[in-house]
């Protein structure tokens, strides 16, 4: 990426890419180069090659700097948690009953789902280290209080339920609504065409998309290639160890 003193020197990501070192000069094994925001370039290379890129003094001389992409920690969603347990109780029992010997700071309570009517248990999202994730999956269950709880990986993509675009919540949305079923300009809950085949508003916007390519909901990760790719990218950028 351009350093603070040379931001105006590189007007686009393409210019940054063209100024980047040539792989042959450093013996690099570059797998992919992707243009990114703010005139940056993302280089995907084999792990040993990262040090070669960092060691290249020529980059600093032309006003570029290296920032290594840090992967996210894995998240798990635990089901069947007693409704009366607060975050402190969950973390205490999680460590005491399941993770003896692991460090307390390697577990973070992210979110506890609101209790549904006539239910005595709820679900909770936690963020853990790769080692703790492995240990929990080796056990197969998470024990909390007097219950054995099921859990799975939690891979969530931030998608607006109002306009169905990505990167923001519905409460912050300033765009026109888009239906998750028929793709027309109204919210999904107000759709009057639920008896008709779905149309994905995101895939519909792609040029050259055939009718068969858009016959799914924009919220269906199993069928929508756009949402599916974002989930795959999220998994790739998570540190599972």
From TrEMBL:
<dbReference type="InterPro" id="IPR036875">
    <property type="entry name" value="Znf_CCHC_sf"/>
</dbReference>
<dbReference type="GO" id="GO:0008270">
    <property type="term" value="F:zinc ion binding"/>
</dbReference>
<keyword id="KW-0479">Metal-binding</keyword>
<keyword id="KW-0863">Zinc-finger</keyword>
<feature type="domain" description="CCHC-type">
    <location>
        <begin position="160"/>
        <end position="174"/>
    </location>
</feature>
<dbReference type="GO" id="GO:0003676">
    <property type="term" value="F:nucleic acid binding"/>
</dbReference>
<keyword id="KW-0862">Zinc</keyword>
<protein>
    <submittedName>
        <fullName>Putative 50 kDa protein in type i retrotransposable element r1dm</fullName>
    </submittedName>
</protein>
<dbReference type="InterPro" id="IPR001878">
    <property type="entry name" value="Znf_CCHC"/>
</dbReference>
């Amino acid at each position: 990426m351009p350093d603070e003193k040379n931001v105006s020197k590189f007007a686009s990501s393409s210019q940054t890419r063209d100024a980047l070192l040539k792989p042959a000069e450093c013996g690099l094994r570059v797998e992919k180069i992707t243009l990114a925001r703010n005139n940056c370039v993302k280089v995907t290379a084999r792990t040993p090659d990262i040090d070669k890129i960092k060691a290249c003094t020529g980059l600093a001389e032309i006003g570029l700097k290296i920032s290594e992409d840090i992967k996210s920690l894995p998240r798990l969603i635990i089901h069947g948690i007693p409704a009366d347990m607060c975050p402190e109780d969950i973390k205490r029992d999680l460590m005491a009953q399941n993770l003896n010997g692991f460090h307390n700071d390697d577990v973070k309570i992210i979110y506890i789902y609101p209790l549904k009517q006539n239910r005595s248990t709820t679900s909770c999202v936690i963020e853990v280290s790769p080692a703790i994730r492995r240990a929990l999956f080796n056990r197969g269950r998470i024990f909390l209080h007097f219950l054995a709880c099921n859990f799975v990986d939690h891979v969530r993509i931030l998608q607006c339920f109002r306009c169905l675009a990505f990167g923001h919540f519905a409460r912050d949305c300033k765009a026109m609504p888009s239906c998750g079923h028929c793709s027309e300009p109204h919210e999904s809950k107000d759709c009057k065409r639920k008896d008709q085949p779905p149309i994905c508003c995101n895939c519909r916007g792609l040029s050259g998309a055939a009718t068969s390519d858009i016959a799914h909901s924009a919220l269906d990760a199993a069928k929508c290639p756009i949402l599916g790719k974002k989930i795959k990218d999220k998994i790739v950028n998570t540190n599972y160890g």
